[in-house]
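Narrative progress, year one. The postdoctoral researcher (J.K.) led the effort to move from monomer predictions toward full complexes, under supervision of the PI. The following entry was the first complex the group processed end to end, covering 640 residues in total.
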Amino acid sequence: MSNLPKAITIYEEGPREGFQYEKGPIPTEAKIRLIDSLSVSGLRYIQIGSFVDPRRVPGMADTEAVAHGIKINPDVEYNALWMNVRGMKQALAIAHLHVDGKVRVYPSKTFLEKNLQRTSEGNRQKNVELIAQCKALGVPVAEASISSAFGCNFEGEIPLSTVMALVDEVVETFAENDCTIKHLVLADTMAWGTPVAMQRMIGAIQDKYPEITLRMHLHDTRGLGLANAYAALSMGVAHFDSSIAGLGGCPFAAHRGAAGNVCTEDLVAMCHEIGVETGTDLDALVESSMIAREVVGHDLPGRVAIAGTLSALRRKPRGC
Amino acid sequence: MSNLPKAITIYEEGPREGFQYEKGPIPTEAKIRLIDSLSVSGLRYIQIGSFVDPRRVPGMADTEAVAHGIKINPDVEYNALWMNVRGMKQALAIAHLHVDGKVRVYPSKTFLEKNLQRTSEGNRQKNVELIAQCKALGVPVAEASISSAFGCNFEGEIPLSTVMALVDEVVETFAENDCTIKHLVLADTMAWGTPVAMQRMIGAIQDKYPEITLRMHLHDTRGLGLANAYAALSMGVAHFDSSIAGLGGCPFAAHRGAAGNVCTEDLVAMCHEIGVETGTDLDALVESSMIAREVVGHDLPGRVAIAGTLSALRRKPRGC
């Protein structure tokens, strides 16, 4: 019935997801405080912000200052989001940021236009150019992501065949440019996914490309984040993006409501309870989650930090 | 991989769950407004309140007035919670309330003591007495429920063997008293359940008692409500308690945070998206969910009402 992995790896995106989405302004010091707390929670991958046009995403204007202000934990790989070579170069200028190239494809033409002002063909060319520029700069190209893979607020359902054709295209693009896909990210950017859709798409890709490692990026806008994560886990998927306290959302996705990524500590709590290791300290994550609330100045969707963990109840029954 | 039912039946408990848990006071008229809105949403079962000691649960003191004030939809079966014969008689006095007997068992001795001030043996005797009194009053005894079946804030994990022994006891109690179990309710009162635990327990009961219809009562305290519901659906379970907007929580369960039942409209949205019918109108439920927020005077955990439904986005893309 299920093919749960023994352990998963979590890619923390809360700082980037949250700081781009919150109305702000959030002081640089507060961002650093949150990242420093995440750095000692056992997380191994933390996205600290993004190098994008500050006119479009004002909350990201201080990413360089954030990057220079954090206390580096040598066990953590820090990275930042960027969407073009200019952004990549900004990231490369900061020695302790890990940089690799990421090919992004969009089954929804409308979202591609809104998010990047590109056509599908234009995006394909940009990806080929990006790979060439990465190579010239010595940056490995290791990842591909499919945005709004399960559905789109602008275009509705995304047929599985459309996604599979894009996977073929991505595999081809990598092969033609002598690159190897480390992760293929299936992003449910606009929260159209269901457990059934997860299993169908993951199964189809696993069947055709068993050598590709899948990673899920699941937004929890309609409350299905953990149900979808469990569906992916039950298919053996072992790599998940997530967001402390459920921070975040994409400013260009026409969202309403609590639009963030699946909540890191809730995902970790579920995994630990079903015997899947995460390498993280849930109590430390709960602390980070409370800091995240202080930083943004309001409550956030994550549940476990407020409800209390089951492990705390085991240590101290009735203690809540 | 999955054995999804074609359709599920939903037992709406939001009014009872919410009014017992909210600090209140909530005006009787406001309660009636919420119930009347639920009555035209396609729901077939609505629990409108409870007949319990108003000193212990002050929010329930006006249940009789609520029952008399609502607009009866003949397609809806209205009921109220009660815990003893005194409460049952109060419910029986109201012609349009459906009354049937419910046997409750508690794997957690501590919770049984806190919730009902009884020992396990005392509870068993009370159940036998209850059945006799129901028979004397012409009330069918049709349901059994296992409270905190997956774990307890006071006692921690509940071993599956403990639950199975209680199921055996319940089946025996029913047989000895010439009653038939219509539903066996597995209640995750304190939100210790996980998708894996759901599948394990449901599978064990289905194997031993294939003739028993299971119904899930899933609290969403740690965000796993829908993941657990999906796990139950994938085992063919077709009966679910739920709570509009995620209202509620048990005042005696030592909860913190958003402790309500799984959210009705979020459950319905998930079901419709995976092709499981519910017989309800999601737009009407979203409206009820917004009324629930007005009634309690603060936001509630349900996501879909705030985020917007996918069906609305299909009708009007970019409309959110």
